[in-house]
Amino acid sequence: MFPVRTLAFLVSTATALPAIAQTAAAPGKGTQPPPSAATAPAPSQPQTKVLIPESDAAAANSPAESNDPLLSVPPMPKGKTTLVGGQVHNIDQIRNRMDLDSFGGGHMRVHFDERTHFYRDGVATTQLAIRKGDRVYVDTMLDNTRVFARNVRVNTGVTAANASGQIERFDPRSGSLTLRDRIAARPVTFMVDQNTNLIAEKNSGVNAVTRNDLRPGALIAVKFAPSGNRGIAREISVLAMPGSVFTFVGRFTNLDMRGLVSVDNQSDQKNYDIRFDPVQARPSKSIAVGSSVIVKATFDGRNYQAQSIEVQ
């Protein structure tokens, strides 16, 4: 066994060893400690942190996209389009609307947004290219209670244009043809020469077209290169000749038992107004809006007159 004094010496020696080790490891006053990459603090740099709410972060990681009703573009309105021609009376680029003086008379306010396509002489453009005084053709749709523009086409008269309507008169010698345009509701005069291509549409009631078929009352569509109010017709398509018989297959979109119906024709996806005599052209069954029908009608130069109405 160790004496008491020896035990006390050993305890004091063990207590002093850590202090001696720390003193030996401490550098002197005139020396600098070696740099250490592990212990040297990194230089302070400004940092920007984007705080994302948990709900937004979860939505960002979710495969399903969320549509904000206030920011997302609404879907295109459903329904048929109506072509309107006119001159821009005023355009508001802030409220996204313009006022038109219709060629047929009257005024119309049309709205547009990101869904609207704009064209200037056939070239895609933006709403900033529309100016006061421009002649435009607008494909309009009803969007709730306002008129919405699906397409806006500006025609400056430097490229080929289209017109459709009814022939008022035609002079075979000079080639001058006057057309009552269905959009402008005013006469349009152009020239027919030996290079004008004459085409008979499928449901026109004729197999071939000559200059002698360009008679007053015929419905035609014209592609021409404008030059003021006169141009040279490049192509004339005959849509209907007076006396021709047509068969319309589709559904009633409008019904007036006093003698007028509208048929959404399946063959060309167009809507036709057809007059009928309630006594002579008596339907085979009761009719209503939405009824599937077959209507045989004669074009008299002004209107389609129903000869028979068959309800399917």
Question: Could you list some keywords that capture this structure?
Answer:
single chain; 312 residues; mainly beta; 7-stranded mixed β-sheet; 18 strands; 10% helix; 43% strand; flat
Describe what this molecule looks like in 3D.
This protein is mainly beta. 10% of the residues lie in helices and 43% in strands. Strands 3-2-1-6-7-4-5 form a seven-stranded mixed sheet, with no helix packed on it. Strands 10-9-8-12-13-11 form a six-stranded mixed sheet, with no helix packed on it. The longest helix is centred in the N-terminal third of the chain and has 22 residues, at 4-25. The radius of gyration is 41 Å and the shape is flat.
Compile the SSE list and pairings.
Layout: H1 4-25, H2 54-61, E1 82-92, E2 97-102, E3 107-111, E4 117-120, E5 123-125, E6 135-143, E7 146-154, E8 161-171, E9 176-181, E10 187-191, E11 197-200, E12 219-227, E13 230-240, E14 245-256, E15 260-265, E16 270-275, E17 292-299, E18 304-311
Parallel strand pairs: 4-7, 11-13, 16-18
Antiparallel strand pairs: 1-2, 1-6, 2-3, 4-5, 6-7, 8-9, 8-12, 9-10, 12-13, 14-15, 14-17, 15-16, 17-18
At a glance:
It is built from two helices and 18 strands. A seven-stranded mixed beta sheet has the order 3-2-1-6-7-4-5, with no helix packed on it.
- Total number of β-strand segments? 18
Average of pLDDT: 76
Tell me the helix content.
under 10%
Order of helices and strands: HHEEEEEEEEEEEEEEEEEE
Beta-strand content: 35-45%
Widest sheet: strand ordering: 3-2-1-6-7-4-5
Characterize the biggest β-sheet.
Answer: 7 strands, mixed
Q: For the CA atoms, what is the radius of gyration? A: 41 Å
Low-confidence stretches: 16-26, 50-66
Structural class: mainly beta
Q: Give the count of helical stretches.
A: 2
Determine the N-to-C terminus distance: 125 Å
**Tertiary shape:** flat
Question: What's the oligomerization state?
Answer: single chain
